């Protein structure tokens, strides 16, 4: 469905949609690192009281690590879990 073949990396990310760099940072992942996004849901994970957080599944054709996502997204990301 997303055109991914063979081995790929997938992550569940809990994000801050209220951060001023939210759209820019996600665009960086999609354009510069060729991330495919799937899903966009409110999570109510406890990081934000007003408005809540959002989750997104990010998939990469290449090997990717949670540390890279934290580094690229900075304060936009609250938590990341690799999907195996």
Helix and strand topology:
Elements: E1 9-15, H1 22-32, E2 36-42, E3 54-60, H2 66-73, E4 77-83
Antiparallel strand pairs: 1-3, 1-4, 2-3
Please describe the structure with a list of short key phrases separated by commas or semicolons.
alpha+beta, 84 residues, Alpha-Beta Plaits, 23% helix, 4-stranded antiparallel sheet
Count of alpha/pi helices:
2
Q: Roughly how many Å apart are the termini?
A: 18 Å
> Strand sequence of the main sheet, in spatial order?
2-3-1-4
Shape: globular
Q: Any idea how many domains?
A: 1
What is the percent of helical residues? Answer: 10-25%
Any low-confidence stretches, pLDDT <50, length ≥5? none
| SSE ordering | EHEEHE
CATH topology: Alpha-Beta Plaits
The total of beta strands comes to 4
CATH architecture: 2-Layer Sandwich
Let me know the largest β-sheet. Answer: 4 strands, antiparallel
Mean pLDDT: 85
What name goes with the CATH superfamily?
ACT domain
Radius of gyration: 12 Å
Beta percentage is: 25-35%
CATH top level class name: Alpha Beta
Structural class of the helix and strand makeup? alpha+beta
Structure, explained:
By secondary structure, this protein is α+β, with helices and mostly antiparallel strands. The protein has one domain: Alpha-Beta Plaits (2-Layer Sandwich), CATH 3.30.70. Helices cover 23% and strands 33% of the residues. The protein is built from 2 helices and 4 strands. The protein has helices at 22-32, 66-73, and strands at 9-15, 36-42, 54-60, 77-83. A 4-stranded antiparallel sheet has the order 2-3-1-4, with helices on one face. The chain is globular. The two termini are 18 Å apart.
């Amino acid at each position: 469905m997303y055109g991914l073949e063979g081995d790929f990396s997938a992550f569940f990310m809990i994000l801050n949609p209220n951060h001023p760099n939210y759209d820019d940072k996600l665009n960086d992942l999609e354009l510069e690192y060729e991330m495919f996004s799937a899903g966009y849901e409110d999570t109510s994970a406890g990081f934000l009281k007003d408005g809540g957080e959002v989750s997104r599944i990010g998939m990469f054709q290449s090997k990717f690590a949670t540390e890279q996502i934290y580094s690229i997204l900075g304060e936009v990301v609250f938590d990341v879990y690799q999907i195996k």
